[in-house]
Amino acid sequence: MTPRCGHPMRRYEIPGHPVLDDPACGRRPGHPGPHISTVALRRQRPQGPSGSAAAAAAIRRARVRAGLSQYRLAAAIGVSRSAVQMWEDARRAPGEQSWIQLELALGPLGVVREQDPEPAATEAERAA
Questions:
Q1: pTM across the whole model
Q2: CATH class of the domain whose range is 53-111
Q3: Measuring CA to CA, which residue among 83, 112, 77 is closest to residue 97?
Q4: Which of 91, 116, 118, 123 is most buried (CB neighbours < 10 A)?
């Protein structure tokens, strides 16, 4: 286990909720910046990219071909501009409903959407 700073921290209790946080700093000893609890540090861990580069490029190409800005595309399909930006940067993949709305707004994207492995398993079970 890595050593912790251990600086004591205040507990902020919400009435009716148990206190689950360790009231000591979980960062390494001698760290710069503020003290952060171990639970808060676990929540801050960055999530890896879930989008594919092929889908990101296809979305961007289709949006530019349609003459839409990220703001206009987002408004047309009912998501935020930052969602469109994350799709185009391959940081996130559009959900099923967003993918459908994208293809309705931009036309076929020419990319096969990656499916969850579970639906394929149920189809295989049906065939057996």
A1: 0.56
A2: mainly alpha
A3: 77
A4: 91
